[in-house]
Design a protein that fits this description.
Blueprint (H helix, E strand, L loop, with lengths): L17 H7 L2 H12 L9 H19 L3 H23 L9 H23 L7 H11 L7 H24 L2 H10 L3 H16 L13
Helix pairs in contact: 2-3, 3-4, 4-5
Pfam family, one: MBOAT
GO cellular component, one term: membrane
Protein name: Alginate O-acetyltransferase AlgI domain protein
Length: about 220
């Protein structure tokens, strides 16, 4: 029809750091916050303390953009802290880890992807918080009554194993573009992809009407 829409979500769940994640997730909002708030406040041209302070301010405002509620305020603070802590670690801690050894490079990448995903997933719970009491209750419940079913754990492992293999493959090939090029050239591409998508759809599909989350803003 002649319409060209800008890319707004660019494989965010392969991000290995909070900073990379927010460059891939909701790109239009992240870009707007960067161009109209963070850069006018000084961007990266000022001291490290001022940079991190400005990041916190921008993220808190980004949380309030979603809604003027306690949960969104806490979520903005939480996301800002992730970025600030990562920036400090990158400057003072991560430089000490040897990266010239290939296996270390892959392990660091994989650990980064896993930690980034789980930090994002935990942050989604904050949307449901409406008071400090609810936040405290959420923290207590998240660390209590944990039960692990070995049978379910084994099933979950075999379901996730193909995704883990694909993730390692993507890292080994050097990124998403190389991975997609290999898939396109493979003669079994459509059958494999169709089968995998069908299995995931049957197992994890939501068969009820749901409004897209960002339509409410």
């Amino acid at each position: 029809m002649g319409f060209r829409l800008s890319l707004n979500f660019n494989f965010p769940f392969i991000s290995s750091s909070p900073s990379e994640f927010w460059k891939r997730w909701h790109i239009s909002l992240s870009t707007w916050l960067r161009d109209y708030l963070y850069i006018p406040l000084g961007g990266n041209r000022i001291s490290l303390f001022r940079q991190n302070l400005n990041l916190m301010m921008v993220w808190i405002l980004g949380g309030l953009w979603h809604g003027a509620t306690y949960g969104y305020l806490v979520w903005g603070f939480y996301c800002g802290m992730q970025v600030v802590v990562y920036n400090l670690m990158q400057k003072y801690v991560l430089l000490l880890i040897p990266r010239n050894i290939q296996i270390f490079k892959y392990l660091i990448k994989l650990m980064g992807i896993s930690c980034t995903f789980w930090m994002f997933a935990l942050g989604l719970l904050l949307f449901q918080v409406h008071s400090p009491g609810e936040l405290w209750k959420l923290i207590l419940n998240a660390t209590a009554g944990f039960y692990w079913n070995p049978v379910f754990g084994a099933k979950l492992f075999f379901l996730l194993l193909p995704l883990i293999v694909v993730e390692f493959w993507m890292i080994a090939l050097g990124g998403t573009d190389s991975f997609l090029e290999k898939i396109v050239l493979s003669p079994l591409r459509w059958g494999s992809l169709s089968f995998g998508i069908g299995i995931l759809f049957c197992l994890f599909g939501i068969f009820e009407k749901k409004e897209f989350f960002y339509f409410q803003f």
